[in-house]
Design goal:
Two copies of one chain form a homodimer. The two termini of chain A are about 20 Å apart. Chain A has three helices and nine strands; from the N terminus they run βαβββαββαβββ. By secondary structure, the first copy, chain A, is of the alpha/beta class. Chain A has a four-stranded mixed β-sheet. In chain A, strands 6-9-8-7 form a four-stranded mixed β-sheet, with helices on one face. At the A-B interface, strand 1, strand 4, strand 5, strand 6 and helix 3 of A face strand 1, strand 4, strand 5, strand 6 and helix 3 of B. Strand 5 (about 70-75) of chain A pairs antiparallel with strand 5 of chain B, so a sheet runs across the interface.
Chain lengths: ~130, ~130
């Protein structure tokens, strides 16, 4: 039987400060907060995905669920809606989020831009279609 | 202007061995490989998402793109298609992938199961709908 996933539903980042994380992802990027537990996590909706930001020191000690944690500067990419790439760049500027790099892919057909979150994670916004069907 | 992302398109894990990663994600879970560069990365399609597995020692030294890396046991969750949760558990068993935990959510309406990849990352398969609309 050939089974397929519909998508990666939960993507996780490990963060230090929930207030700073909320200010950036909710205040800056406009992602709705869908859950928060002080000292442990804050969760955001990102279209059909959820972004789960955990305090690694807490989830490393998990006993009810399998422990998980990470350190470093992780990378994730958000996909924007068709035609809204430039509007996102404008939104980043208005939120005083610096674009650290911009790239083009597939012979210039698709653009993407990179920026950091408060923990130094490397975020990217990509135009739809750049990963194919 | 209220902008929304369609989804998180790229989710990244940091891995040690591309062959072991290929054997697990392609051989075990059946994810199609969409890119591979020896010593640097292997990429998989996972429904409408892509799973990018990087050798952190390589991407940490990146110069053309912003460097990124992580160590630890990261967590991600795949969403299965409606009605296929039990078939996925069967597929895991057939691939000799141990389910380390199973959980139910939203008063038992949704199930999920957890397992490890070769790097100890904590993977989960969730039933559709568990994160709401």
């Amino acid at each position: 039987m050939s089974l397929q996933f519909s998508q990666i539903k939960e993507t996780c980042l490990y963060v230090k400060d929930l207030d700073a994380t909320a200010a950036f992802y909710q205040g800056g990027l406009g992602l709705p907060v869908i859950g928060r537990v002080e000292g442990r996590h804050i969760f955001f909706r990102a279209g059909s995905s959820v972004l789960l930001c955990f305090i690694a020191a807490a989830t490393r000690q998990e006993t009810n669920l399998p422990p998980h944690y990470a350190t470093g500067r992780q990378h994730i990419a958000f996909e924007c809606l068709p035609g809204e790439y430039e509007a996102w760049k404008h939104k980043l500027r208005q939120a005083h989020i610096d674009i650290i790099h911009e790239a083009s892919w597939n012979k210039g057909r698709f653009r993407s831009c990179y920026f950091h979150d408060p923990d130094g994670h490397v975020l990217e916004i990509v135009e739809p279609g750049m990963w194919g069907p």
